Amino acid sequence: MANNSMPPPGTGDIFPDEAATWLSLENTARRIFNLYGYGEIRTPIFEFTEVFQRGLGNETEVVQKEMYTFEDRGGRSLTLRPEGTAGVMRSLSGTDAMNGVEHRVFYIGPMFRGERPSAGRRRQFHQIGVENVGRVAPALDAESIAMLCHFLNEIGAGGFKLLLNTRGIPADRKPAEDALREHFAPRVDSMCEDCRNRLERNVWRILDCKCPECQSHIAAAPDAASLFAAPSREYFDQVCQILTDWNIDFTVDPRLVRGLDYYVHTVFELTHTGLGGQNAIAGGGRYELNLPGMNRPVCGVGYAAGMERLLMVRDAMNVPKVEPPHPDLYLVSLGGKALEKNRKLADELRHNGISVALEAEEKSMKSQMRSADRLKSRYVFILGESELESGEAVLKKMDDGSQQTIAIDSLKDMIVR
Ligand code: HAM
């Protein structure tokens, strides 16, 4: 029988004690991205299916096998976003980004891919992504990478490995494409069925194949990027030079093509030993997207990092989890009158910015103190009949156990935040 408390495979719940760490990651991203002039953009969770088909490329694994696609009531095909770039480009395609005006945006949110779930691979996962849209310049590619490294170091996920390559621009790829076809054609019979189809349709995708039987053939393939025409090679040299000037370590990986077809020029991926497997914590590059209804492609450079994977790396690096917020004050009530007074006090204190917990009904002193402990409240205030009469009661500071008798009316001023 299905366990009703379990969410669907490849998805997960985030409980309040974990949410604090997620939030801190998101807030660090916001802070770092702001330093580079990026503002937050929020686009729909689903888009018309053709946004992803045209945007990511029909030959990609994501489009062919992993999209959650459904029809709306009018019969139009919609898809839960498998990544953020295509939707962001769809939204900016109505702006002056199309006329070369630079836009700097970032996004944080859930993405959906129908992959086989495993550690670090989920069907609903969360990305923190960044896009610099509208302009083409090697310095922008390098800055995008530098910003990602800055963010990862800041959240305690330093020690990553940066892999870099170039996809060149389509006009410069022909000699490289010919060399790859020449290399794979005599071998393709011993390769997987997908790769046999890819040979003519999109030979680059072979380089991204994960099937065991294809790996030795891929490893022996020529270094395609070195065969690109000069403009693409020079662009990449400039990106590498700027990164070197900024002391950012990288390894050029001639097999790195990335899983999406919109990339041109620079592509990059970051891996971390803390993840164990081969999984990347982040990836990105420069792209050109040709979306429905657009008469020319929109260009940009950016990346996305998987939040679940970042959290796994932080765990592996023993970065402490962020404590969820605890109440400033727990109001203990001994008797109905005290409870009534505490309800009023709670309302007033909360409107003064002090977080307060108290029972909804009368409970024993012992049970209320247990709750205060469980919630890790910083102070406890104990009110009974005699305290109501005298107008004074005990305020206890929980970390050192010290206590003092204070006027009930002065409670607000005694809570040091
Ligand atoms: P991507 O490499 O497909 O690129 O995904 C980026 C990151 O999302 C991965 O490095 C990984 O950390 C995380 N990720 C991807 N799939 C999963 C999954 N099934 N479960 C958990 N985490 C996952 C993109 O999505 C591009 N839009 C990045 C980009 C932005 N390129 C240019 N701009």
What are the defining features of this structure?
five-stranded mixed beta sheet; Rossmann fold; 35% helix; binds histidyl-adenosine monophosphate; alpha+beta; BirA Bifunctional Protein, domain 2; 417 residues
Offer a quick outline of the entry:
By secondary structure, this protein is of the alpha+beta class.
Describe the protein's topology.
Elements: H1 16-35, E1 39-40, E2 46-48, H2 49-56, H3 61-66, E3 69-71, E4 77-80, H4 85-92, E5 103-112, E6 124-133, H5 138-154, E7 161-166, H6 174-184, H7 193-201, H8 212-219, H9 230-245, E8 251-252, E9 263-271, E10 280-289, E11 298-306, H10 307-316, E12 329-333, H11 336-350, E13 356-358, H12 365-374, E14 379-383, H13 385-390, E15 392-397, E16 403-407, H14 411-414
Parallel strand pairs: 1-5, 7-8, 12-13, 12-14
Antiparallel strand pairs: 2-4, 3-4, 5-6, 6-11, 7-9, 9-10, 10-11, 14-15, 15-16
Helix pairs in contact: 1-5, 5-9
Bound molecules: histidyl-adenosine monophosphate.
